[in-house]
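Marked as duplicate of an earlier ticket. Keeping the data here for the record.
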Amino acid sequence: MFKIKSYLYLTIVGSCLAISGCKVPDITQRKENTNMPSGYNNLNSDTSNAMALNWRTFFKDKNLIALIDTAVINNQELNITLQEIEIARSEMMIRRGAIFPFVKLGGATGVEKVGTYTSQGAGDASADITPGHKVPEMLGDFKGIAMATWEVDIWKKLRNANKAAVTRYLSSVAGKNFVITNLVSEVAKSYYELVALDYQLAIVKQNIELQQNALQIVNAQKEASRATALAVQKFEAELYKSESMQFEIGQQIKVTENNLNFILGRYPQPIVRDTVNFLKMTPALVNTGIPSQLLTNRPDVIQAELELKAAKLDVMVARAEFLPSFGISAILGLQAFKPSYLLKLPESIAFALAGDLAGPLINKQAIKAEFYAANARQLQAMYNYERTVLNGYLEVSTQLSSISNLEKSYDLKSKQVNTLMQSILVANDLFKFARADYLEVLMTQRDALESRLELVETKKEQFTASIKLYTALGGGWK
């Protein structure tokens, strides 16, 4: 049977008030340093920003858009990140639930016999329940009760813990957006690498045709005693080298296709792409906006900022552990030693109400350790936020410089290729009339091939720099 008990809290209250008057450790304060330049590479920009463009608008190739669609659905890393969001959502619900009272419903049954020569036994033996009926020797215990417990959130400890969980949930969403940004970037870079390799393979095949023609000429000259066997062997060796290069590029294509299929979350299959003149393709123009836009555009910066806010809330939660906590518990129900008596009201009603106020008094080392650890994690999150902002700015600055230098390099390499392609025709004509040595023809063909392959590589780097700049600005996740 529940019994209403009165508790004297004066001693406890006095102790807790003394505890609350003790010095609570101060939170280490440090203002984050995110002062950013007004422009990139000492150039002021307007507020137009390519980040605002959806990746479907930024990329024009329909095959690339289809690949990105597949990656967003199937990529395993992204799906793992989505589960992290669900974990953060559950943690948020747990913290939110801790703010409200916990209520339980229950029932119990039992039997007991106490000794007659005890205070309870002696009283029961002489007590009449009704005239002529004493308390049974074997005493049952039947009850159905509702129990409630509630920690009153005096110091906002529970609310701050809930805010921290909500902030981390939002941080996990920003982390998902960062994964999508990188995913879009990786698919696009791999796609253009494949297109570039296709074009390089076509160049090598064209070069093989030129070398085969040159070999026929040198064979004819050898038969006419105008060239030596050494010249024929040199031309043959150069032809074998180019034919071998076909298979090297073919292997690179296979590796790139498999890497892209892995990103797409599927087993090897052909990557659909157009056969185009890669050198005539132009990377998308990227507007950078102003540096301060990175704070609201880049998912990794947003994630780092939210993690910093959550870490600050964690410190406040850890600090509140030094202060007294106030809890209320209540029980209300029906209790009797026979089931038939449970509904006899108000005699069978049982209730209890208690409040407790408690705080740490001795051996607070664990609480101190948790506070100092939370404080250190807050500073750690602050440094990480500053580093993320700095890294974002430097990535944009680097890619802007890369785009500018690659454009100048491409123009010069284009002139080099045009000159060497003309020199091949001149060298072949001179060789036919014995006005040039066969080594000059071989070196001219080799230089022309290398310069054409380098030109394609530079064009690919231009696309890569444009994609990286779009990603660095925070584009690709919307």
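See parent ticket for discussion. Confidence is low (pLDDT under 50) at residues 1-21.
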